[in-house]
Amino acid sequence: MSNPPESSTDLLERLQHQVALFARRAEQTRLGGVGKARNSMDRAAYLLLNRLDREGPMGVKALAEAMGIDSSTVTRQVAPLVDTGLVKRTSHPEDGRAVVLALSPRGRGRLEEVRDSRRRLMAEVTEDWTPQEREVFTDLLVRFNTSLAEWHAGLGQREEPEDSTAGTAGTAGTAAAAGTASPASTAAPAAPAATPGAPASAVVPEPAGTGVAAGVRGDSQGG
């Protein structure tokens, strides 16, 4: 008997759990690789050196933008790399007044050692995978990382929706200042007279802020 199809909620729950496990295990092993270069370079240093190797000399601001972090973080992370001779400060090739960061020959050699070590680790971890499975997993991981980067890039642009009641209050205040009544402040019509023999509740008007309209407004504000 086949298993029932997995719901969207169940699938997303399984995804977030597996991502959490991946992050923890990656941090535990630091994806250090195998051989002499194992655990010889932390993640921040590796990503900085890798970026400089792939894109060439860059200023602190450009490097920070490319990596999606702030300039102060780049400055702090680059300092030990400069001190150990893996990165060097040099003049911009087109603007001699500007200072850029560049990968030194020592840094390039060290980076290649770490890359080779990590490639061997990936080969061991996925030893029983087919080439097609490795390719599919890599493509999906690239897509996932890209989506994460785009989500973080747009995080500051997403704003909370404005309070709809503020606009109503503003309209009412403006109308009062002008000496006219806004629709919201118009008095409700008088309740009809009670019919002889009818219960008193039948002629009591619904209090403001209750009922279906209030429920819709509450939902729109996350209440």
Provide a descriptive summary of the structure in words.
The chain has 223 residues and is mainly alpha-helical. The chain has a domain at 15-121: Arc Repressor Mutant, subunit A, CATH 1.10.10.10. It is 56% helix and 4% strand. It contains eight helices and two strands. The protein has helices spanning 8-29, 43-55, 60-67, 71-83, 105-125, 131-153, 164-177, 211-220, and strands at residues 87-91, 99-103. The two termini are 43 Å apart.
What tags apply to this protein structure?
globular; two-stranded antiparallel sheet; Arc Repressor Mutant, subunit A; mainly alpha; 8 helices; 2 strands; 223 residues; single chain
Give the topology.
Blueprint: H1 8-29, H2 43-55, H3 60-67, H4 71-83, E1 87-91, E2 99-103, H5 105-125, H6 131-153, H7 164-177, H8 211-220
Helix pairs in contact: 2-5, 3-4
Give the H and E element order. HHHHEEHHHH
- The whole-number mean of residue pLDDT values reads 74
The poorly predicted ranges are 166-223
Percent strand equals: under 5%
Estimate the helix proportion, in percent: 55-70%
Q: Helical stretch count? A: 8
What is the number of beta strands? 2
Query: What would you call the shape?
Result: globular
The CATH class of the domain at 15-121 turns out to be Mainly Alpha
Distance between the termini: 43 Å
Assign the CATH topology of the domain at 15-121.
Arc Repressor Mutant, subunit A
